[in-house]
Every structure is written in structure tokens, then in C-alpha cells.
Amino acid sequence: IVLESSYKSVEQNHKDLVPVVLEYVWEPVVGINGVPAGEPKKTLRLRHGKGWRVGLRSYLQLLQKLKGMNGFYQADKLRYSLEALLVDLDPQVQQLALGCLMRCKLKFIPPYHENLERLISPLSLRTELAAFTLTANKDDGAVILQEHRHSLLQYVIRILFPKMRRGGAPKGGQVNQRKGAENTKVNLGGGGGRAARSAVLI
What we know:
Blueprint lengths: L1 H11 L1 H12 E3 L13 E5 L3 H15 L10 H10 L6 H12 L10 H8 L4 H7 L14 H20 L19 E2 L8 E2 L3 E2 L1
Antiparallel strand pairs: 1-2, 2-5, 3-4
């Protein structure tokens, strides 16, 4: 009961929480002589580091417990940030981000949630790649509804992106917590799910 009350209190103060989360996830891209690149629009990139991921996992675990995320302050930027974290090298961060996105009540996630989770896990990745049919052709055994296909494939690409960079699933689930993450940037201002090299927070 105490925890439930605490979560409700956090939900009511979402205008304070969301900016803190966004600030924790993103950092400005610094240009020549320490001047932020991309002014007057702020160009950002995902933060990185082992210590950062520890705090990030705590934030994501909190967000997973909250309701009404679609009605939060800056809900669109929060969603894009969660989508950006699907390209993280750490499967636990990917899994937590996916769990938070489930709270956004996106219609294309629930029917394939378990498939996405198995793609995230290094232990089930290869098996799921062979079993999960992404074709749109019903004659080929399509399991994805046509109206879900475009958005879902963007999530699949994000989830697989760090694994492809490393040449496959890490043995035993181990990941390099730093390598590659510092250069991963995502378009925070649009509705697409495409991994990109820049981010602009408007």
C-alpha cells in the first residue's frame, strides 16, 4: 500500500520527473572550443558509462511502475527517449525500456512483446530470429498484422542494431558497457524508429 501510494505521488509530479529523466538520458554534443553543436537547437546524444547505466536502470524500473504515461509532461520526448534506449548495448536496459514502452499503450507492442523480449535476450536471440516470421505474406506464415508491421519492424531494427555492431549475440549475455554507446544518437524530434547519428530536442 505504501509503494502504491508512492507511485501515485510520483505520477502526480510527472512535470518534475520527466525533465530529470530526459536530462539523465541525453547530453549535449560539444563542438569546437566547448561550444554546444547545433545551436540554437540543442543537438544531443545518449550518455554512456557503467555508472550511468546503474542509475538509468533505476529510472526505468520506476517508470515501469507508473500509469498514464501518455498523459505525462513531454510524453512524446519521453517515448522517443525510451525508443532510443532500445539500441543500447546492455540487454537489461533494452528490456526495461521495452517494458516502459508497454506503458505507452502502443497497439503494435503487446501482440509481439514476448518475441521482442526473446530478441533482446542473448540466450534466445538466435532461436527467435529463426522462429519469428517478419514477412507480410500470409502464404509464408506471416504472424504480424499489416497495420503493425511498419512500427514493429522499426523496434526490431533498434533491438538488433547493437547486436549487429558486435557481430552477433554476446556469449553468456556479457556486454561491453562502454564501447559504441557513446556514439549512438537518435532522432528525438520525429516519430520514426530509425537508428540515426544525430538528435535534436526541440
